[in-house]
């Protein structure tokens, strides 16, 4: 039996009882003869509590000090989980990010892992120990850093690669990756397997199970990922290369998100660097732009539409107003209460008719399409928010995902 | 203006409000032009909370994992205090024990500081920053260690020595060192100054303000210590060399502790290694013995009495019974509900009559003395617990401490 990495998220280690439950699960995997490295997050609401303490002191605390503060959350969990294993007579040792050799950029609050010095972990494994590592954190020179959103998943995948694990198993509060969100669509079905690229599109589009960074990392190193529940023994979803995928369905899942707002800039003079200026302005205001559509309606003028999340509309309008004179556009429109619905599947690459089929289905139910964006394995349509669930249900049915 | 080390204990940083209060105090000291290194403990009940979590998992958790767990407490405080200073526009940086270069033995839970690699702290000071260091913790190779009881005081003194500070200022919830415990004796008086040796005797005897390890450390390096309140601006007590002490009173303070039990082993055969065996047995059972009195009543036999704390009586009796046959003693007696009262003062060294004076005073109030122990600057008498406060009050008065 080879090496495995398990990762348990905040909910899975949210209480002493749950930590003991995780210890039981680890015991079983160890009994099967695996060498185990376990990555854990901070306990349930621990991070929120720390963020709240900082918030009582400073509206904008130093990022370095936030890393210093937040990294204690995972450190508490690794110590407690290790104690729980030792209490069962299992030899285990906890390691902080820096002890585990997780080197990162010097970018507090959102550092990327640059390399893993795996000596310590490999040594502890060779001594027969289960190694419990604090997720979400690393070290840059001698500074404690954190990895930002989805950081613990990334830690797990990076460690799996560094110790040449057979698989990186992400245990969470859902039983796997679904064809669409089961909270909205009762007939959503759990997938046995999915490809990295499909998962990336699903993750980016709000499926929310895994952070895209960790999936991309796994893809780059061909590290098989398993997503499964820490609370049940139900089989999860395997994420791997194309060829390992169960059946070559055209569409593998429907992702969706609401709170989408469409903004249109009208009558923008068609100069070389206009688009660059427009989106740099928004980026400087930390406005995240998703879909962009450009339409040149005369030789000299164009319209540009883009989608943003509802909450950044105010900043967007302010930023645009600031540069209206400089850019010389005529008007701004916006449309709120929209949603984005996307079909995802690697089968689409060789099947150009899928987008058309999607539009037909939406038309059949009189759902107007406001914007469209496509990638090789995804087609996204922006629709009215009130039509979102209907659109997802109908697409889910029409593409035989039930 | 030179360098200063401040240390703030758990009560002083027990809430966000108190952390802000500490930041205000630091701001004042910085405004006076001092270079400052600040050592802090975990917030109020934070350590208790962590100990409780561990206790829910294991009755005897691994000491290494306890260090991993508990060291997070101080790490939270350094981050929050640094944020509070930065919020006031003061440049500051937090350092964990290992970042601050605090090297210790590889003895988890009770490590001694072996050396301090001061480069990082000195560099940050030279950049004009106030350096906030986590007390109570250090590093041995790449393992996180904690220093045990009084650890943060020791961290503060060791850092003061390492950066050649002018003074190490310990801020706590009392206003200084008193002639005796003001909770018991209303006329207790705060001392302006006291010598290291006197403080050591006071600390050992339960005055409780400073841990003896930190006082000894300060004495070895002639580092002046100030004990003062973090809640008021009242002048505290300076602890220094003999010559700095205000007035050469014979007795400088009265220390006392209750819960003392006296155990007597009767008819112990007078062999060479009998005493060694007897006390090794107790030490192996983790019984702490304080006063020891040996009385050889014939050439072949002796009686040995010693004092222990009430809570270890059961273990003591069990241990003695185990070795009764081997050691060949005749009987065991014990006497509970006793207390130890001690007079402390370096003036005693050259004044042999002080002990006699103490016994006279006790006799005057019909307080029976059960055991006596003396050092160069201390005389301790064991008396009935019910007489403890009376004895302290009368000695306090007779030796002109009011």
UniProtKB/TrEMBL annotation, chains A, B:
The keyword Nucleotide-binding applies. Keywords: Amino-acid biosynthesis, ATP-binding, Diaminopimelate biosynthesis, Kinase, Lysine biosynthesis, Nucleotide-binding, Repeat, Transferase. It comes from the Bacteria. Residues 263-337, 343-402 form the ACT domain. Gene3D superfamilies: Acetylglutamate kinase-like, VC0802-like. ATP binds at residues 7-10, 172-173, 183. It catalyses: L-aspartate + ATP = 4-phospho-L-aspartate + ADP. Its EC number is 2.7.2.4. The keyword Kinase applies. Pathway: Amino-acid biosynthesis; L-threonine biosynthesis; L-threonine from L-aspartate: step 1/5; Amino-acid biosynthesis; L-methionine biosynthesis via de novo pathway; L-homoserine from L-aspartate: step 1/3; Amino-acid biosynthesis; L-lysine biosynthesis via DAP pathway; (S)-tetrahydrodipicolinate from L-aspartate: step 1/4. GO terms for biological process: diaminopimelate biosynthetic process; homoserine biosynthetic process; lysine biosynthetic process via diaminopimelate. Pfam families: AA_kinase (PF00696), ACT_9 (PF22468). Catalyzes the phosphorylation of the beta-carboxyl group of aspartic acid with ATP to yield 4-phospho-L-aspartate, which is involved in the branched biosynthetic pathway leading to the biosynthesis of amino acids threonine, isoleucine and methionine. Belongs to the aspartokinase family. Tetramer consisting of 2 isoforms Alpha (catalytic and regulation) and of a homodimer of 2 isoforms Beta (regulation). This is Aspartokinase. It comes from Halalkalibacter suaedae.
């Amino acid at each position: 039996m080879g090496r495995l990495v398990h990762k348990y998220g905040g909910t899975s280690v949210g209480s002493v009882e749950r930590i003991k439950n995780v210890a039981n699960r680890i015991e079983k995997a160890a009994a099967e003869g695996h060498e185990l490295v376990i990555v854990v997050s901070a306990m349930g609401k621990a991070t929120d509590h720390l963020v709240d303490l900082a918030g009582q002191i400073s509206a904008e605390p130093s990022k370095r000090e936030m890393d210093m503060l937040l990294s204690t959350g995972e450190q508490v969990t690794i110590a407690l989980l290790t104690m729980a294993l030792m209490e069962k007579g299992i030899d285990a040792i906890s390691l902080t990010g820096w002890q585990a050799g997780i080197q990162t950029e010097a970018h507090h609050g959102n550092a990327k892992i640059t390399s893993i010095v795996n000596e310590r972990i490999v040594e502890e494994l060779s001594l027969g120990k289960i190694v419990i590592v604090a997720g979400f954190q690393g070290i840059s020179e001698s500074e404690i850093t954190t990895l930002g959103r989805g950081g613990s998943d990334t830690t797990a995948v990076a460690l799996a690669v560094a110790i040449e694990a057979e698989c990186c198993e992400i245990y969470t509060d859902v039983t796997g990756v679904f064809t669409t969100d089961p909270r909205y669509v009762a007939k959503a079905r759990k997938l046995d397997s999915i490809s990295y690229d499909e998962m990336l599109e699903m993750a980016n589009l709000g499926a929310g199970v895994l952070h895209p960074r960790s999936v991309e990392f796994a893809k780059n190193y061909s590290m098989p990922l398993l997503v499964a529940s820490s609370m049940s023994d139900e089989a999860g979803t395997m994420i791997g290369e194309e060829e390992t995928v169960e059946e070559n369905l055209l569409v593998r899942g429907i992702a969706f998100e609401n709170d989408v707002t469409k903004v249109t800039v009208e009558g923008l003079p068609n100069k070389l660097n206009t688009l660059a200026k427009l989106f740099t302005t928004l980026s400087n205001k930390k406005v995240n732009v998703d879909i962009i559509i450009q339409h040149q309606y005369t030789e000299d003028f164009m319209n540009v539409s883009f989608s943003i999340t509802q909450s950044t509309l105010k900043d967007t309008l302010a930023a645009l107003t600031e540069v209206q004179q400089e850019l010389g556009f005529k008007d701004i429109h916006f449309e709120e209460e929209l949603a984005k619905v996307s079909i995802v599947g690697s089968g689409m690459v060789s099947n150009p008719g899928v987008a058309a089929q999607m539009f037909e289905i939406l038309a059949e139910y009189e759902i107007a399409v406001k914007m469209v964006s496509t990638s090789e394995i995804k087609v996204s349509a922006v629709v009215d928010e009130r039509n979102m669930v209907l659109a997802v249900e109908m697409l889910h049915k029409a593409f035989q995902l039930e």
